[in-house]
Amino acid sequence: MPEGLAASRVQVLGIVQGVGFRPFIFQLAEAHRLYGHVANTASGVDIHVEGAPAQVEAFIGAISTQAPPLAQITSVASQGVAPGHYTEFQIIPSRQGESRSALISPDVSICTDCLAEMQDPKDRRHGYPFINCTNCGPRYTIIDDVPYDRPKTSMRSFRMCLSCQTEYDNPRDRRFHAQPNACDDCGPQIMLEGVDAKPLWGAAAVTETARLLQDGQIVAVKGLGGYHLAVDATNNKAVERLRRRKQREEKPLALMAPDLETIRRFALIDTDEAEVLTSPQRPIVLLRKRRSNTIAPAVSPRNAWYGVMLPYTPLHYLLLAKGFTALVMTSGNLSEEPIAIANPDARERLAPIADALLTHDREIYLRCDDSIVRKTDGVTRFLRRSRGYVPVPVFLHQRHPSVLACGAELKNTVCILKEDRAFVSQHIGDLENLATYEFFQATIDHLLRVLDVTPEVLACDLHPDYLSTRYARERDDLPLVQVQHHHAHVVSVMAENHLDGPVIGLALDGTGYGLDGTIWGGEVLIAEAGRFDRAAYLTPVPMPGSAAAIKEPWRMAVSYLAHTFDERFYDLDIPFLSTIERRQAEILVTMGQRGLNAPLTSSLGRLFDGIAALVGLRHQVAFEGQAAMELEMAIGPDDAGEYDYGWKTVGEGRRIEVAPIIEGVVADLVQGTPTARISRRFHATLKALFTALCVDIRDQTGLDRVALSGGVFQNAVLSTALARRLEQNGFQVYTQRLVPPNDGGLSLGQALAAAAIHEGAG
Ligand code: ZN
Ligand code: ZN
Ligand code: FE
């Protein structure tokens, strides 16, 4: 045995498969002149190295610091072992059936190496739209089973040519075991299908697509997780035509621009935003509009923000290089339906919208929409967590039984709890039509398969009519736990922050079914994972017309006025009353008084809506939360004080009064106070009110940890100001950074709450 030979066994856990980890280890061992082997295992990568002691030590240290870009290491554990006297370092095949529970990487944007090759006229993949390597390309959307191997992906129908196979087999190559490896000779091809023209292939298809777009036409473009509908973002007529055909009236349309420089021509970017824009996840990032720019007004009407992303597939880069300032790249669907992924489906569903189809023959197995984020105070906040991030789990601090949580009705995601990890699915959408419901079921089946999970417990919302609830109830093979909506919101924050209860949970939200059958949404809970008390809530008021009151915020305005002033409100001298018909308003008031299709709600989202309508921002909305968003955007810069606020003790809880706030707003309206000031005052009132409530609850209970969740926290002004004020008052504040605070993050809380309730019961 040579002098000073050390040997170590190293186990690395995390996302370390399908991300070029074994070749990285191979090359790292070579660099340190170490012998041994590396293999994939059930939960990660197993390494044996031996050589000079200092080199072994340096090797182990470098694993975390030099890991490949897509790897996410959760632990590196090493122990000294007896040397095996190896004479080389080898990548050895994984033992059969062992890698089923390894983590799958999300889809990621093309890396700089591949981009440089694609743009190099001398490279054999010059201009090839499916170039990829172990550091980049599709993953989650092309896998239909584990272990992650080419035959389990939609690349199975393409046989690698000799050049590609040689790269694939060479541990020193960037494409070693890159499952989607391909080239123009052996891999997928793009094709442009026009209305009646002959199909075009390859570079000709890209050139013609660009020409059609420059001509103002709408082209459906197949991407990573589904089709986009593309149109020249500087052509207002074209954008308006897209809106008409897609039946999408006002919701902002996402933009894709070639690079940061070009984005700066129409939007403001700070360093945080630049960082997330250029990250391999390539989400849509909300950016403030530049005052004057060449983007068509129809892209984001009445909005201070654009949603912008950089190209992320090679094909995007080829298209954007044709001289566009930006393309609208909105999901390829009719309003409210799931995004199209299969070619025949796209032809059928997108034909009435798109003038042409830029498609390809690499199948998408699982739909995945673009993610949407906003940077606030240096933190990435999700509005939608999907492509690029899914299926990276939320790592928990405890092990749990396997739970399948079915999520909410709107912005649905599902969550699968497995041991100490929670896998939140991609964005599924609003479960309001059959197509989305089918996508919901397909996602559940797919995730259970690729995560190799057999659930022991089912979780769903308390709302009896949610399709996700019905799905859960129809499955009678498993114990079912129904979790109250706002309890789930609070547990969602607790889960990602590794908190055990109890905490003070502020669930400020749009709509959720309450324990008493009314609609909750302005809730302060004292919560643990398995139980909660309702410590405070906004005074319930009627929602005249139920769902109609969400689409028509003026109904809520009438309801709050009637609540605050009774019949006398007709005599108020405010502009709002001249914009509505008194007879209609009287009907709403009667509905509320008699409880006719007017459920009671304590929702803060509805209070935002009602005030937005009252100040004249809008009477109707095209999408949920629009009025509240406009009230936030209307906020003025000056410090304008607060409205009166307070609460009454009712039983065990506190009923927060809304009347003083409405009185304050009305007094301002009578005096002609500008909307900017009213909005500022309203936000300041909420900040003061909820801080005072937390102080009161702390005095009573001693709790000083506050968890913030619910759709209202998409409002960056309120979240930032409230968190700061709470901290100034000595609270520890916890917010959502890994999943959205809206219903997109609900399934995470559902899963954890159900696990706790189930374990408590068992
Ligand atoms: Zn690459
Ligand atoms: Zn090839
Ligand atoms: Fe909610």
Structure overview:
This protein is α/β, with parallel strands linked by helices. 33% of the residues lie in helices and 21% in strands. A hairpin with a 5-residue loop joins strand 21 and strand 22 (519-527). The longest helix is centred in the last third of the chain and has 27 residues, at 675-701. The mean pLDDT is 94. The structure holds zinc ion (ZN) (2 copies) and fe (iii) ion. One zinc ion (ZN) binds at residues 160-161, 163-164, 182-183, 185-187.
- Widest sheet, order of strands: 7-6-14-8-9-13-10-12-11-15-16
Number of helices: 23
- How much helix, percentage-wise, in residues? 25-40%
Global mean pLDDT: 94
Radius of gyration: 28 Å
Q: Report the major sheet.
A: 11 strands, mixed
Give the overall shape, derived from the CA principal axes: globular
Beta percentage is 15-25%
Q: State the low-pLDDT regions, or none.
A: none
> What structural class do the secondary elements suggest?
alpha/beta
Bound molecules: zinc ion, fe (iii) ion
Query: What is the terminal-to-terminal distance?
Result: 56 Å
> Would you report the number of β strands?
29
